[in-house]
Amino acid sequence: MGMDLISATADETIIRMPVEGNTQILGILHGGATAALCESAGSIAATRHAWKVGEESGTELVAVGTDLTMAHVRSIRSGTVTAVAKAVHLGRRTTVHEVTVTDQDGRVISTCLARNMIIEP
User: Which of 79, 74, 4, 73 is nearest to 41 (CA)?
Assistant: First the structure.
């Protein structure tokens, strides 16, 4: 899918992805590709938090996705899109990240709410 991790913390994770190679039959960015981008950003951020919680408790912990709610608001045919996952809730057992996907001009393409559960692997 060509995703590039730009930065990753529990509070904010940024990933960029090309539109080319991730389109559906009409030539626009595939909603499933956008969902994969959002889930990746939210899960990486949640995993960073899980590692921190695990260090504090002396237990190895990971994050697994439990829910992804998407809203696609604009289509795009070329260029790149950037997902920014911002923490809404960082708990000991769950996380919630709001993910906004924008085009190269900063226009919102999709929004997402990504929920993860923190568990032992």
Answer: 4
pLDDT in tens, 69-88: 999 999 999 999 999 999 99
**Closest to 38 (Cα-Cα) out of 107, 95, 88, 111:** 111
Dist. CA 12–CA 107, nearest whole Å: 19
Q: What is the pLDDT of residues 21-40, one digit of tens each?
A: 999 999 999 999 999 999 99
Torsion of CA 55, 57, 59, 62, to 10 degrees: -70
Residue with tokens 């904010």: 12
pLDDT of residue 24: 96
Between CA 47 and CA 32 the distance in angstroms is 22
Rounded Cα distance between 2 and 85, Å, is: 18
What integer pLDDT is reported at residue 11 of this predicted model? Answer: 98
Residues carrying an active site annotation? 39
Distance CA(92)–CA(108), nearest Å, equals 31
Helix, strand, or coil (residue 51): helix
